[in-house]
Design a protein that fits this description.
The complex is a heterodimer of chains A (115) and B (112).
Chain A: E1 4-7, E2 10-13, E3 19-25, E4 31-38, E5 42-51, E6 54-57, E7 64-66, E8 76-78, E9 87-94, E10 105-106, E11 110-114
Parallel strand pairs in A: 2-11
Antiparallel strand pairs in A: 1-3, 3-8, 4-5, 4-9, 5-6, 7-8, 9-10, 9-11
Chain B: E1 4-7, E2 10-14, E3 19-25, E4 29-37, E5 43-50, E6 55-58, E7 61-66, E8 71-76, E9 85-93, E10 100-102, E11 106-111
The chains are: A mainly beta (115), B mainly beta (112).
């Protein structure tokens, strides 16, 4: 079981460039989400999805797009990268069956630097 | 805005001592969870406590919840150097559609 796989692990972009952070899970989890982690700020929710074809905004959605065409994949797109998007990005998935609550399994993270 | 706020921000103890970390939150919750993050890694779920529970144990972990004070504490007993990590509380707020909101985290250092 691979769990939650994020690619790439590291990426350097120039301001204005676009890119997609990939996230895939092999646990058949319905719920998937993207967080960003910045020093002193903890984790902040960007976008989330409760199932294929359904996405919604989190706390800091501006500058990011997501789609959920399959249960397994939840890519995060940066349309025009800005230095303020320099961060570590985490993808997470869950289902409520095991705990009767939303317990997250995280990927290893993607460190993005925007110059 | 952060729902959960951990306290202290940083904690340094000797191996074998107990570590106590606190979390306060603002609104009604369905459950509260604690996660650990080792340096450069993703977060790992440790323990969950529901709003109708007051205390739970898992190995060397003990978590308490006081809904009247909107606070929780995580106790790690007999700490080990391997417990060195950042610890986050996360709340599943009522009406939040199962979204988890994380605090800023506590950095725990356990000295050998």
């Amino acid at each position: 079981n691979a769990g939650v796989t994020q690619t790439p692990k590291f990426q350097v972009l120039k301001t204005g460039q676009s890119m997609t952070l990939q996230c895939a899970q092999d646990m058949n989890h319905e719920y998937m989400s993207w967080y960003r982690q910045d020093p002193g700020m903890g984790l902040r929710l960007i976008h989330y999805s409760v199932g294929a074809g359904i996405t919604d905004q989190g706390e800091v959605p501006n500058g990011y797009n997501v789609s959920r065409s399959t249960t397994e994949d939840f890519p995060l797109r940066l349309l025009s990268a800005a230095p303020s998007q320099t961060s570590v990005y985490f993808c997470a998935s869950s289902y409520e069956g095991a705990h009767g609550a939303n317990v997250l399994t995280f990927g290893a993270g993607s460190r993005l630097t925007v110059l | 805005s952060q729902q959960g706020e951990e306290d202290p921000q940083a904690l340094s103890i000797q191996e074998g001592e107990n570590a106590t970390m606190n979390c306060s939150y603002k609104t009604s919750i369905n459950n509260l969870q604690w996660y650990r993050q080792n340096s450069g890694r993703g977060l790992v779920h440790l323990i969950l406590i529901r709003s109708n529970e007051r205390e739970k144990h898992s190995g060397r972990l003990r978590v308490t919840l006081d809904t009247s004070k909107k606070s929780s504490s995580l106790l790690i007993t007999a700490s080990r150097a391997a417990d060195t990590a950042s610890y986050f509380c996360a709340t599943d707020a009522v009406g939040a559609n199962s979204k988890l909101t994380f605090g800023k985290g506590i950095t725990l250092s356990v000295r050998p």
